[in-house]
Specification:
- By secondary structure, the chain is an alpha+beta fold.
- It folds into two domains: 245 residues, Bira Bifunctional Protein, Domain 2 (BirA Bifunctional Protein, domain 2, 2-Layer Sandwich); 87 residues, 3-Layer(aba) Sandwich (Rossmann fold).
- Helix 1 runs antiparallel to helix 6 and helix 6 packs parallel to helix 10.
- It binds adenosine monophosphate.
- The site of adenosine monophosphate has 16 residues, from strand 6, strand 10, strand 11 and helix 12.
Amino acid sequence: MIKAITGTKDILPEDIQKWVYLENIVHKVMNNFNYKEIRTPIFEETKLFKRGIGEATDIVSKEMYTFLDRSETSITLKPEMTASVVRALIEHSLDKQQQINKLYYLAPMFRQERPQAGRFRQFHQFGAEALGSTSPSLDAEMIIMAYQIFQKLGLSKITLKVNSLGIPSSREAYKDLLRSYLADKVNDMSEDSKSRYKTNILRLFDSKDERDQKIMERAPLLLDHLDDESREHFENVQDLLNKANIPFEIDPKLVRGLDYYTHTTFEIVSDSVGAQSALCGGGRYDLLVKEIGDRDVPGVGFAAGIERILLACENEGVLPERENRIDYYIVRLDKELNNEVFQIATNLRAKNQTVEIDYTLRSVKAQMREANRLGAEKVLMLGGEEYERGKAVLKDMNTGEQTEVELSEFLKK
Ligand code: AMP
């Protein structure tokens, strides 16, 4: 038996309505903020992600689906979208056509993570990127937009955390401070943290290891060592969030895994989905475009995981009832009328009606049962002496009322 690859999931018809429901909310909110949808290929040249995400990150160092294609080009299935959006922006000179590009997406992503609840190898994200301005208004807009999507979904057990990573110069000075604080403690830390001490020291705040956490509890915080510009930027963002009535917590330990962030970072976490609680994360990345495209274009964005959000919606019981709408089920009373039933169904379908018929020559009773099971609004019964008189019986399944209709008239409507 061939099965789906570990960490991937089929989205079956019974689940699709949830996805479409969420997708519609995403499209609506993004449109309200005048973000335009962008779709990029599912794979890119590996070096785009190496440069764009950073060699020392978990994604690049151990999670990417990378392979050589037949022409020996190193290809990677996209593990996140920002690098692809930036590549497309530069490649098509979108930044030259207008000062600010506000883009959003819905797309599958691929990371070879250890599969567990809430962690998949193919998962789906929606997200947005605003490129072309350093304005803190765009940081706030990003956060508000993400938050509004969660609000529209009806999620209430969520917390928005924000932090500032400042600009590189103050961050580098702070990293030195952190390095010297940890110099005589790093040997007592986990193996992961020992290596991150050298490659990505901020990530030590992310460690789930108890010993590490104890040591990091007393570590100096970047937030206390921000330069004036960064502090002002961060205060402006907070002010805009307050004025928009968006509740948030400042989390000075929120560092996020990627290298390219500057200034604002944020995350929305849920209390209702277990250990993998991050539904959404993002921040400002004023240095990334230069890294990838040699052009100075500041940006800010976020990405949200659809599987986890739908799980949160399910656990909070906020998804709408599943709707299974069929306008007409046509019951065939005589076996000889098979083709006529098919023809009438085709006719009604062309008139935008959702129609189902029986394909297996079932009894009238079985067809009625099926019409019930499918939740058909109306049943059209074709056959008997009514059919010979050019008529059919129409049954309203909600009221049980039956009426005789002139077939030719009925089909003309
Ligand atoms: P990131 O791009 O790592 O900042 O992730 C953004 C969001 O994508 C997270 O908050 C999750 O909701 C979701 N996400 C990331 N990795 C996975 C995964 N392996 N499986 C499912 N969702 C994920």
